[in-house]
Write a structure and sequence with these properties.
Elements (H helix, E strand, L loop, with lengths): L2 H23 L19 E5 L2 E4 H13 L9 H20 L6 H19 L2 H7 L5 H26 L6 H9 L8 E2 L2 E9 L5 H21 L3 H8 L11 E4 L7 H7 L11 E3 L2 E11 L2 E9 L5 H19 L5 H8 L3 H4 L14 E3 L5 H7 L11 E3 L8 E11 L2 E2 L6 H27 L2 E3 L16
Antiparallel strand pairs: 1-2, 1-13, 3-12, 4-9, 4-11, 5-8, 6-7, 7-8, 10-11
Helix pairs in contact: 2-3, 3-6, 4-5, 4-6, 7-15
Length: about 475
């Protein structure tokens, strides 16, 4: 693959992601057509894809949303936006045909999260409605619902297309060596980071207090017909799901901890679990809806209070471990194996894994800002003082000492040293080709009408079926 063709592929994927993100995060702006002093073209149909109609105003709204978010629109054309909107509707149309359904509860939960975020960013519900030129919350919710449902159907269809695509080592090798040497990618400076973690524990009496409270909530729901959703809004300590009443939609492949999934999939529809423990604290789960392999669950999370004495003890232990490593009694890897409370890293010398590709390297320009700030001032061989890290998902805080194990300067891709990154690029190319083949096939099989005014567009796909 040449740099030019690869850049084109990456650019197309970037535009897809960018426009989808805007459609998911924003309600559409409206155009004032009431003025008597200005003639306005009546809204027309730009294209029809299966059961979906795309209006000319939809293109305008998408462009306005991009501009409102500060995204560069210099290289975004009206034809390009129309092509992207048509792709989304083709995915959504085929998702419905293939019975890849999205529940209204899932869509409403996403809309609720967005409304909460937008209200916090803008300042109030009234300001938010004014900003998006909506007269009332109902009309705003309706439009947001339609945007989110289409986006979620589209994502589900795209996920199905690529879910079973893998690349073999031989495919990775062929992908890499067909790139001319002078066109091979350059990877930025990277770090390998190791850590030793101590997790302060709550005393047994605090744990039991939380268990008893969860049992009382469960009993109230079962015996008095209390609302689990309302209870979750009032009591859960999971900030990500509180606004939706503790709601998550999940399959067995969804990224939840094993204990949570085991309980969720052991219950029948309408059942509520007994309190159980995960790394985040104690939960109860209500299975609200079962749809084949997917289910909607509500949960309430409560975390036992950790006393200051337990926090002080963890910090003291880390200070002692740090000093023993500096004194040469243990290597950092040996100390991680012997003393770290983090199972995911202790057996690998404390080495962190990049959540994007599970490689051990973190590219400086793409690092999570929190992680970057924790290690940016560390010199080679230096070990940090104990650092507190609060869990954004609602779990208890942990404390850790950190070390930069290796540094890698900016360099041209090397097949042996950068195999994981090259594998990721090869997989993306294979997925892109699969999506292109799927798109070509389903464009032929689906009713598509493009308005004559838009048929001169140089679309990436054969929408006019020439």
């Amino acid at each position: 693959m040449t740099k030019k063709s690869k850049a084109l592929s990456i650019a197309l994927v970037a535009i897809v992601g960018m426009v989808q993100a805007q459609e998911a995060e924003l309600a559409m702006a409206t155009v004032d057509t009431t003025s008597n002093t200005k003639r306005v073209k009546l809204d027309g149909i730009a294209a029809v894809i299966g059961d979906y109609v795309i209006l000319e105003s939809d293109i305008d709204k998408t462009l306005i949303d991009l501009q409102n978010q500060g995204a560069s629109t210099e290289d975004v054309t009206r034809c390009g936006l129309l092509g992207k909107l048509m792709e989304d509707r083709l995915y959504a149309h085929q998702a419905v045909q293939d019975s890849l359904l999205v529940s209204d509860d899932m869509v409403n939960a996403q809309s609720d999260r967005q409304i909460q975020q937008l209200t916090q960013q803008i300042g109030s519900v009234e300001k938010m409605l004014s900003y998006y030129k909506k007269s009332d919350m109902e009309s705003f919710r309706e439009e947001l619902f339609e945007i989110n449902k289409l986006r979620m159907l589209s994502e589900k269809m795209q996920g199905k297309i690529v879910e079973e695509i893998e690349v073999t080592p031989e495919e990775v090798r062929q992908f890499f060596y067909k790139i001319p040497e002078d066109e091979r990618p350059v990877f930025g400076a990277e770090l390998e980071i190791a850590q030793i973690v101590k997790q302060p524990e709550a005393p047994e009496e605090e744990k039991q207090k939380v268990i008893n409270q969860l049992k009382e909530i469960r009993q109230d729901v079962l015996e008095n017909d209390a609302s689990f959703k309302v209870k979750a809004i009032l009591y859960t300590q999971d900030g990500a799901s509180r606004a939706n009443g503790g709601l998550y939609s999940m399959t067995k492949e969804t990224q939840f901890v094993k204990e949570f999934k085991d309980v969720a999939f052991s219950l029948n529809e309408g059942e509520i679990s007994e309190p159980f423990e995960t790394i985040f604290g104690y939960h109860i789960i209500l299975v609200e809806k079962v749809r084949g392999q997917e289910r909607d669950v509500r949960h309430i999370l409560m975390t036992p209070e950790i006393p200051q004495s337990a926090i002080d003890k963890a910090v003291k232990e880390l200070d002692s471990i740090r000093q023993q490593v500096l004194d040469g009694k243990y290597t950092f890897a040996e100390a991680a194996l012997n003393f770290s409370d983090e199972k995911e890293t202790k057996f690998d010398g404390g080495l962190l894994r990049n959540p994007i590709n599970f490689d051990s390297r973190f590219e400086l320009t793409k690092m999570d800002p929190t992680l970057y700030n924790q290690v940016r001032n560390l010199k080679d061989g230096e070990i940090s003082r104990p650092i507190r890290e609060d869990d954004p998902r609602g779990g208890p805080p942990k404390f850790k000492i950190m070390k930069i194990s290796n540094r890698y300067d900016e360099h041209e891709a090397d097949f042996a040293k950068d195999y994981m990154k090259i594998q990721e690029l090869a997989l993306r190319e294979k997925q892109f080709k699969a999506i292109k083949e799927w798109m070509d096939e389903h464009i032929e099989d689906t009713y598509i009408h493009v308005d004559p005014d838009n048929r001169d567009c140089d679309f990436a796909n054969n929408w006019v079926k020439e």
